[in-house]
Amino acid sequence: MGLLLLLLLIGQTACSSPSAEVAAQEVQEPTETFARRRVVVGADSLVRGRLLDRNDSVLVATGTLHLLKLPRKGTLDTLALGQLLGWGPATIKRRIANALPYDNAPNGYPVNLRLTAAEAARVRKARKQWPTLVLSTQVGRRYTANAGAAVLGYPAAEAQAFFTQAKRTQRGRFYQLRNGGVEGYYNGLLTGRVGYLHPLIDSLGQNRGSWATDTVFRQGQDLHLTIDRNLQAYAEQLMGNRKGYLVALDPKTGEILAYVSGPVYDPATLTAPDQAKVRSEMLYDENRPLINRPAMLANPPGSVFKLVNAAVALQLGAIKPGTGFKCDQRLIKCVHNHPVPSSLTVGLKYSCNPYFYQTMRNLIQRMPDSLVVDTVAARHANLAEWRRYVRSFGLDSVLGVDIPREAPGFLPTPEYYDKARGTRRWTYRSIYSLSIGQGEINMTGLQMANMTAIIANRGWYYPPHLVRSIGEDGPLPRFLEKRHTLIDSANFEALLPGMVGVMQRGGTAETSSLADVGITVAGKTGTVENGGADDDDHAAFVGFAPADNPKIVVAVYLENAGFGATAAAPCAVMVMEKHLRGSIAPKRKRWEARVKHRARNGY
């Protein structure tokens, strides 16, 4: 029976249909597979974009850096090496000392010195006489000027040594060092990107389509900054080693013309291989030069804020341009001897504290009919309304400037005072410091300059920015959007006579007038109480020129410098004069020299 079954199976197999046989063959035939490839496009031609000023002068570009490595063993004749490089005895000692991370570094610590192309050529020619010197090159960012550190910033990839130092000294978080300036903010556009093709290749090497979406090669974009190289360098000379900031901008466009954070330093310091000691000293410097003050540091603005309070008071009907008040010293001290402030113009010209105390009191203690009995609710509502109008100046929020880590500043709310005072029944007397820009109000330097631009424009502004074009395109779209405040233009116009009066005879900044060169400046001084008995007050000034057709706005803030009229105003008006005329009049040359001397010595 088993044999019979076997014969039957063999017979069925032999009688199978031809179609089934063919189908079996088709299934067994192997299918062709395609190789996935990834082709990089443009890797050899990708170059990081340059930074240029508003007049197309190159500020930063990628180039060849020449490094000289000194021998780690044996003695080195530094005098002879200095002669070879064309450096004097003091220069060679200073350059080597700056390359070491700290004083008394052990012998043999690696030292690399940056050389110019000419200096590197001298070393090559003398190679036989100096066999222990090692000359090398690398690609990196080259700075053509020693100004603009807070603007230009650095690529994070080239600042790793600095980040390591900051981490070791536990100062990195304190300084928020990874702000990177324009280099950090626009890193992706500056770097560009390589392209990628994703072909499918058959066994014969033929292209059979793509296995993924291809990406296009994009060269690193040049950034044309709004900064004026010469004005930036001049403004940094006026700031020097002092703590503070200076921001100058074009009110009609929001383009920043000069952006200074003091104390100032060379922009190459944070990435240069031979600046380890300088970086270490900066990390521990009590003046905190690494803080990007105009964007990251918010302070009470002082009396310059009286301009905002006056505009809001006019808008809400708390005062009129002709409103006068007594200079009542019992309310608040007034440091200036001046005539009775019979109008807003006189109050601004002499910066009368009692005048603005009473102006703000009219604002906060107004009694709408619906709240005539509930004075607590009225104060809360009035403070909230004041805050809403003030916020339309771009305060208590970031302006969106193209630099990392911009601080928002602060404006108090009614709820803030409820919590801070421990009761809802606080009175105007407990918050009156708002009237003179003190107390809980905090503003950044960028906000201070933008506030002044709003007044210059009579109520509108373009957000301040540092890049006017990216490659062949314009700035980022948001910088072309005009923004308006909640204040009518007529109420800004009412501020102008008082601001012009500040710069005229008897005004708080009369000595800073530019009338001798035909320029009418509109300004406002500020002296900010510091709270400490042993520390001098901060000096502030804001202004624009020409007053009738503003082309430049300047905001200056000098920490512990004393009066705004004598410390901050001179710096501001000289920057205005430099921008508008190109030079400083002989009448102010001695004054200019005195300011620069103070800047170098840090006071």
Automatic annotation (TrEMBL):
Keywords: Antibiotic resistance, Carboxypeptidase, Hydrolase, Membrane, Protease, Signal. Its main location: membrane. Residues 48-206 form the Penicillin-binding protein dimerisation domain. Pfam families: PBP_dimer, Transpeptidase. InterPro entries: Beta-lactam/transpept (IPR050515), Beta-lactam/transpept-like (IPR012338), PBP_dimer (IPR005311), PBP_dimer_sf (IPR036138), PCN-bd_Tpept (IPR001460). This is beta-lactamase. GO terms for biological process: cell wall organization; response to antibiotic. PANTHER family: BETA-LACTAMASE YBXI-RELATED, PEPTIDOGLYCAN D,D-TRANSPEPTIDASE. Residues 1-20 form the signal peptide. It is found in: Membrane. Its EC number is 3.5.2.6. The keyword Signal applies. Belongs to the class-D beta-lactamase family.
